[in-house]
Amino acid sequence: MTTSSFHPPVRTLMGPGPSDVNPRVLAAMSRPTIGHLDPVFVDMMDEMKALLQYAFQTKNELTLPVSAPGSAGMEMCFVNLVQPGDTVIVCINGVFGMRMKENVERCGATAVVVEDTWGHPVDPQKLEDALKAHPEANTVAFVHAETSTGACSDAKTLTEIAHRHDCLVIVDSVTGLGGVELRVDDWGIDAIYSGSQKCLSCTPGLSPVSFNDAAVARIKAREHKVQSWFLDLTLVMGYWGSGTKRAYHHTAPINALYALHESLVILQEEGLENSWARHRAHHEALRAGLESLGLELIVPRDHRLPQLNAVRVPDGIDEAAVRKMLLDDFSLEIGAGLGPLAGKVWRIGLMGYGANRRNVLLCLSALESAMAAQGADIRSGGAVAAAMAVYGA
Fold this sequence. Notes:
By secondary structure, the protein is an alpha/beta fold. It is built from 14 helices and 15 strands. The chain has 2 domains: 23-268, Type I PLP-dependent aspartate aminotransferase-like (Major domain) (Aspartate Aminotransferase, domain 2, 3-Layer(aba) Sandwich); 272-391, Aspartate Aminotransferase, domain 1 (Alpha-Beta Complex).
């Protein structure tokens, strides 16, 4: 059998990630590959750290992109900061809190779970109560931007509570970075991880992380060797340290890092707060259109992520058939629900380069067609008109 070159179709990506990639980012990936210890590449690494510090709003020296997706960024935080015998409070309000719990247990630590309803933020009072009941805890882990539901938790308040009980915090903001307010230094976050493929509109495969001085001090005081060689920060920092003297650790994904660098340059050009405002504005237009279709977002209004919209599927609608029609007829991808929300919600992403008017209007008109095809009683053109009213057109 002869296999020819692969040519993917052109899609509009409005699921939970990956998001549409900015053409400038795709172009950056095609630049000439150089060595991962080339002085020119080392200079770019230093620029990358500064750009990530801006995106995270931090001065943390230990800020870098892990050469693997967001799940590896998560694991890097846990394997470096959690040791056998530790007690970690894990807040679960969706799939990715559950993954945090799994990481705690694989580190040989005890996970104490604080549970909240999927689609709702983490309840600060429940965290407070858990910390009072478990004074032996030394770490709190929670998801800032829960990708499985579109709920945004109050990272600032949760971090303050954890610190009052002498705990460090590990925060998941894979879907948050670049799309919603996030201030690592002002909020006192100790360790945080994200992903390149969401609101940064880069290709998948890299995980920005940042650790403050308190987190670094814990890493240096470890009694047990970090269980992962690849993710051991004491080794990785020999490569991502300051200056031109770098110790070989692994062959960095050079062209992927070109892409992340370009995506962060684009974010800097737009301005972080402008990016946050743009995501919010397009979310409001999408919300108005969805409501005109009789659709409901599952997250209470004050706690919604603008970049990830979990929409309840109406009775009588085949949610998988709708997604199939969107993909087949409109080349538009939206996401399905996970866990207990499987078959009950669509997840519609408005992330990074894809958070724009064209995508909002395409999604609304496509959903209108797909639901009408299943017999839903919908006013033709109403969703687009509702969104355009929000845009002021």
